[in-house]
Specification:
It is found in: Cell projection, Cilium membrane. By secondary structure, this protein is mainly α. It is 49% helix and 8% strand.
């Protein structure tokens, strides 16, 4: 989960369960790359669309209270502390409201920086490509075969 987040993805538990089943003990780097190709990061327009559904008055802002309510009750629920961390870093004008357009810009830029940093680390140390993720119960250098998910139409991402 956290490895996918570091790669700029925000997977739900349902997404994780597609790739990490009860038979999965580890994933190698190539498996991980295959997942990244299938699970695209959210785009700014997708994020703005999701926030726009919350901002029914189309002001460009949502209150921190609205954000707390949504992020702690829907989807992969966050803790109050996690949401507080987000709101402290994203309260650009100290108004108690989230300027979600600026937030989306920051999110996309941060995601791109994380991906670039990861690529730079791989170029410096190619041994990182051989790392296994998960339980190391075997000394095998090969990963497991990933289940092939059924094709489905890509649905619009939401704030949860």
């Amino acid at each position: 989960f956290s490895v996918l987040q570091q790669a700029g993805r925000n997977p739900s538990q349902k997404t994780i369960n597609k790739y990490w089943t009860s038979q999965t003990t580890s994933l190698n780097f190539d498996d991980f790359c295959a997942i990244l190709k299938k699970e695209k990061p959210a785009t700014k327009s997708e994020l703005l669309e999701a926030f726009g559904k919350i901002d029914t008055e189309k002001t460009g802002f949502i209150s921190h209270d609205e954000l707390y309510k949504i992020l702690t009750t829907r989807g992969d629920k966050m803790t109050w502390e996690e949401v507080t961390t987000v709101t402290k870093q994203a309260d650009f004008n100290c108004s108690g409201k989230l300027d979600y357009s600026k937030f989306c810009e920051l999110y996309v830029a941060t995601s791109e920086q994380c991906c670039k940093a990861a690529r730079d680390r791989l170029e410096i140390d190619p041994r990182l490509r051989q790392q296994q993720f998960g339980n190391q119960t075997e000394n095998s250098s090969e990963g497991i075969a990933l289940p092939v998910p059924k094709p489905s139409p890509r649905s619009s991402r939401t704030a949860d």
